[in-house]
Amino acid sequence: MKSTTSDDANRRQRRGHGRPTLHDVADAAGVTRITVSRYIREPGKVAPETAARIQAAIEQTGYVPNHQAGQLASGASRIVAALIPNVGHSIFAETIQGLTEGLRDSGRELLLMATGYSLEVEETQLRTLLGWAPGALVVTGRHHTASALQLLRDAHAGGTAVVEIWDHPEHEANAEGFARIGFDHRAVGRTMARHLIEQGHRSLAYVDSGVAEDYRAHERGQGFAAEAKAAGAQVKVLPAGTGDAFDAGRAVLRGLGAESSITAAAFANDHLACGALMEAQALGIAVPGRLALLGFGDFPIGRQLTPALSTMRPPRSEIGQAAAEAVLEALSSGEEPGSRTLPCELIVRGSSIAA
Amino acid sequence: MKSTTSDDANRRQRRGHGRPTLHDVADAAGVTRITVSRYIREPGKVAPETAARIQAAIEQTGYVPNHQAGQLASGASRIVAALIPNVGHSIFAETIQGLTEGLRDSGRELLLMATGYSLEVEETQLRTLLGWAPGALVVTGRHHTASALQLLRDAHAGGTAVVEIWDHPEHEANAEGFARIGFDHRAVGRTMARHLIEQGHRSLAYVDSGVAEDYRAHERGQGFAAEAKAAGAQVKVLPAGTGDAFDAGRAVLRGLGAESSITAAAFANDHLACGALMEAQALGIAVPGRLALLGFGDFPIGRQLTPALSTMRPPRSEIGQAAAEAVLEALSSGEEPGSRTLPCELIVRGSSIAA
DNA sequence: TTGAAAGCGCTAACAG
DNA sequence: CTGTTAGCGCTTTCAA
Q1: What predicted TM-score, i.e. pTM, was given to this entire model?
Q2: For A75, which residue in chain B has the nearest alpha carbon?
Q3: CA nearest B272: which of A351, A300, A96, A310?
């Protein structure tokens, strides 16, 4: 048996950050490393008296287990990696919250990164995330670069659960076999158009997101336009500008003011719609009398305006919760995670009701 | 020399997720692991012809380096861990953005967790983060539980750079020696009071955050009250409710309507203030004529209302950038990260200007 | 209930 | 320019 003291002294000289290790705790408690390891993972399997000594040693040394070493040794990843377009954006904040809560108490760790709506960034971040050998992968949307898709495929083939959130087209088979949790954006666009048509409007506009890679907003626009045309209504799709979304919405509305024929407009998100609503009021354009407005996202501010903004309420936090559930089940059962369609609800408030 | 083929076959049977390793790439390229490792870290130090073979092998195998193993072996952490009250909250979103951008291209990884404004959660999350052996730690605020503080101290003593953001009191020495990047919230509260007093108000209110553990908002209130009293003005501090911040602001304003003596109110954040502003308009209370309103945070919506909301613009993204810089410098120089005070600017718009 | 041996995937140090 | 040796901190058999 080696001398504990000199061994200890040596260890400190060597590589590695100077933090206490299992070995330090073991020495302090007068047991071997494996017993400490066991105590940490399964306290019940250690004699009470030993457990007490170990606990004291842990506190005394300030030991914090090293996850890297643990995962490496066990080969079982406790990491769930998630990729979201924009962490700060209100629409995704609740999804993250849902994911976080769903994963809490599961002993898993959420590793979160943002793509800034760029597929190239997504690919880079994906590579980074995979470096942490996650047990499950949650990505936003079903559009990826070819390389990113290959990374997802490889991970999936290697047994990593892969879930795509926020996007679940009804009539498109998922060739890759990833789970999908979300809703059909084209169908939501159709719902939006139908609502305005039912209110008697025959000349509509869809104001698309200024973010080029917000495919889901574009798809809502496609569904909107298709439904409008099918109903024999006029429809125009216009892009919003970039920058502050309220301002972009205001700018679009000024343009819309000229197009006297359009009587109702739907927007890619509530911020654009709220900007338009406020600008309409500033310009003296009656809402919904002269122009009906419909948003998407159900952001808090929409409820506060007068008239309140009609909108679509997407299952923001539900998506996160469902993703967490799917991931946890897949991880514990070893089966593939399951897909789910969650409802996106029309909320009719003042801004879209026929006078 | 062992048989490569049987060795390979054996390895697949054993522990560990089935993903390709350095060994697989090395076999495919006909070199040893260390050469592949070197190619990945310092491509220049490998013969061009070998490099090409390795690159081909990497692509063919779909190899993704395992960070856990890398960090464990090198003992050098590339992780910067950050703890934020609320990832989705607009005020912190830009700080995270600043951090992310500041760290990009540095080869470091940001590990982010939210505390939900709870110090107990902070302690838990801190323990988790420390398990990843981060090279630097960014935490929000200077208030921590005793255990959390001890964890920070231990980490700091072990050579981990520790930075506290969003809070940097002018006249309080930091006994722990952590870096602080932010501003003095009491001073900001004083600035807010001074502005209203300069506009001729003698009876003020501060509407505090409904979040009990938002110490920074409370401190702004303390500074506000102190300054008001020093100027001989009346001042009242009232709490906002929890739940939707706009609604909470509206509710407070209705209460304020009864207190006919108060002529100016400052708020813990812009959402509360915007809610109050909108409710005032709904009630026919003239702003700023009958009641002047001042927010904090400079959220986008404040600019859109009429009158536009006067507010304080905190250095949201600057704090993130400065934290990234401090961390990177500390990490590369081995010195302690430096503290910095960043300015929080008064933005006077319509809601607080004397008629 | 506890321990010994072996190894997770990768890298530092030193040869050659 | 490339390889050998040893080991990061922890966990998994399997044995005592």
Answers
A1: 0.91
A2: B16
A3: A300
Domain enclosing residue A303, as ranges: 185-313
Closest approach of chain A CAs to the CA of B77, in angstroms?
Answer: 9
Instruction: Spell out which residues of chain A touch residue B96, defining contact as CB-CB under 8 Å.
Output: 87-88
CB of B312 within 8 A of CB of B293? no
Domain check: are B251 and B304 in the same one? yes
Scanning chain B, the segments in alpha helix (DSSP H) are 4-13, 22-29, 33-41, 48-61, 67-74, 90-103, 119-130, 146-157, 185-198, 215-230, 245-258, 270-283, 300-304, 316-333
Condensed to tens digits (0 to 9), the pLDDT of residues A79-121 reads 999 999 998 888 999 999 999 999 998 989 999 999 999 999 9
Neighbours of A262 (CB within 10 A): 20
Q: Cα angle vertex B53, ends B50, B58, to 5°? A: 125
With b for 16 or more beta-carbon neighbours within 10 A and e for fewer, the A8-32 pattern comes to eeeeeeeeebebbbbbbbbbbbebe
Which B residues, 66 through 105, put their C-beta within 8 Å of a C-beta on chain A?
Answer: 66-69, 71-72, 74-75, 77, 87-90, 92-94, 96-97, 100
Using CA atoms, how far apart are residues A291 and A191, in angstroms rounded to an integer?
Answer: 18
For B304-316, write each residue's pLDDT tens digit: 999 999 999 999 9
Regarding whether A33 and A8 lie in a shared domain, the answer is yes
B280 neighbourhood in chain A, CB within 8 Å: none
Report which residue is nearest nucleotide C6 when distances run from CA to C1'.
A73
Residue B353 forms part of a structural domain: no
Residue B80 lies in a domain: yes
